[in-house]
Each structure stands twice: as C-alpha cells, then as structure tokens.
Sequence to fold (155 residues):
Amino acid sequence: MTLARPMFPPVDPTRRRFLSQAAGVAAGGAVPALAIIPPASVLAAPAGLPDPVFSLIAAHRTARAAYLVALAEHTRLDQLGDPDAYLISEAPFMAQLDALNDVIGTAPTTFVGLQAWASHLAEISHCDESWMFEEDAPTLVVTLVEALGNLAVAR
Fold:
C-alpha cells in the first residue's frame, strides 16, 4: 500500500529555515508557494478612497500566509514525533485569527471596500475555514449594517 504524499512543498528540515521564512513573510517579503494570494488589485484601495478595510485584508492575508508556513512546519515536526510541534503554529494561528477579527469588525467606508470585504470573507468561508465565523455572525451583521450606513452617508 502506497501512502499519499502530503501536498506541501519540500521543507528544509531545520527550524532555522522555518524561522527565517516566517520572519520574511512577517516583514512583507515573498510568500511561499503554499499560500494562495489573490491579485494585487483586490488588496489595494482605489486612488482617493482611504478605506481602512484594504489594509486590514492585506494584514490578514499576510498573517494567514505566515500561519500556513508554521502549520506546514508543525505538521512536519508532528510526523517526526515532536511532542511540542503544536507550539510552532500556535502564535501564528492566533495572529491570523486576530487579524481576521479586525477585518470582521471593521465596516468598509466605500462600495469598493465593501466588495473587497465581502469577497475576502467569502474566500475564507470556501477554504474549509467557515468554522471561523461560527461565533462572529452577530458581529458580521452589525458590521454590514454599519458599512451600508457608511455608503448611505457618502452619497
């Protein structure tokens, strides 16, 4: 019986490599192929529209990419029998969850921002991470109502 190979890219077996890669992602460097990042047009606010939601979405994407790197290392160490493997992904997981909560709790101030906000949340819900929204439904509704109010005032 042949075991299926994990879908992770080859990982350097040293923690030093992982830490340098995670630090690079956190500093805004290139994201490993393991993370899926949509086109830059979704990340940047249109000229003249200072909607804070765009920077929060970008921060969540960066935090999520760092978490995916940590998760791959966590999985590798776990397969080697390291009982402390979970520690490597714990802080990055919490950071990406905090960043997502910032996105969820911030009402977009522009129509384009509202589109990006809704698109980003839909993307997450389709990545087997819809569980992240289980406790946030009331906040999502309040934020959406606030965003719609922002649009009404902007007219």
User: Anything to note?
Assistant: Residues 15-26+51-154 form one domain. The mean pLDDT is 76. Helices lie at 15-26, 40-43, 53-79, 87-105, 111-125, 137-154. Residues 39 and 52 are 18 Å apart (CA to CA).
